[in-house]
Amino acid sequence: MTNSKAGILPLWKPRGMTSFQAVRKAGGILKTKKAGHTGTLDPDVDGVLPICVGRATKIVEYLTAAEKVYSGEVTIGWSTETEDASGETVETRMPEEAFTEQEVDDMLVQLTGEQKQIPPMYSAVKVNGKRLYEYAREGVSVTRPVRTITVHSLERTSPVYQHDNGSVSFTFTCHCSKGTYIRTLAVTMGEKLGYPAHMSRLTRDASGSFSKEDCVTFEDMEKYADEQPEHILLPIEHAFEHVPSLTVEDDDLTRILQGGILPLPKQMDDPDIPFFVIFDPDGRLIALYKKDPKRHGMMRPEKMILTANDR
């Protein structure tokens, strides 16, 4: 495979590997340096990690902005520095008895919807050009930015059970907006119940239009990368299956390939459509376009995927 190849690798990232390490290993197998992931997964977390390869790196920002689905486990009884199972213990206070399922379900309802969240110190969020985990490792405390996130659904998926050591655990599934830290959400679950807590296990089940069923492993990559890359790389178009689209004929195609400003079709004159995708007659994704804010009844490029030189 060469750098001219483009597509999206829906990788199932294993635990014990950073997202950067996963991208580097995938790039080595695919024999390309032009690759980027679409949303960090912590080393302790496994799951869906779409990687953009070649020309597909142009759409990384759109995949990063996609909603996510996770399944995880929270353990109540102690908290950690990193808010997950690998961190040093900060506070220990075991519940006297297991919470009822109704108590837990009522608490999860309280954490559904739009809310404010402060990212954990052990995270890749940048403050003054430096990542929070770098400050944390130096023992430096900084003011962290408050984010607005949306938890679309948060549901318990197991009984509430108490361990021999007194801690209480249950599993859950969460459908949320980009930028949501499930580790922090797990800590908040404990706070709502009155005890320290941490995320004891987490898997990302879906990222945007990519699910577990789409994913390939590194073993799959080793098997197919050289001779049958179509088995592991999805076309760029897959990422925009649920986005409004237009197919243009040759008359407008040349102007669009040149990044031209064109009349806006009536069906795209909708404030609820932030951008739409444009295909050529062969079904190839050419560009993302949007309503021109300065020219009434016109559309302009949001992102060019192909240009006249690529034809």
Would you kindly provide a written description of the structure presented here, covering whatever features stand out?
The chain has three domains: 7-66 and 208-239, 2-Layer Sandwich (Pseudouridine synthase); 74-150 and 177-198, Pseudouridine synthase, CATH 3.30.2350.10; 243-310, Archaeosine Trna-guanine Transglycosylase, Chain: A, domain 4. It contains seven helices and 19 strands. By secondary structure, it is of the alpha+beta class. Strands 1, 2, 3, 4, 7, 10, 11, 12, 13 and 14 form a ten-stranded mixed β-sheet that branches. The two termini are 20 Å apart. It has helices at 19-30, 60-64, 101-110, 132-138, 182-193, 218-224, 250-257, and strands spanning 7-13, 35-37, 46-53, 68-76, 78-80, 89-92, 113-117, 126-127, 130-131, 147-156, 161-162, 168-176, 197-207, 210-211, 245-247, 262-263, 276-279, 285-291, 298-304.
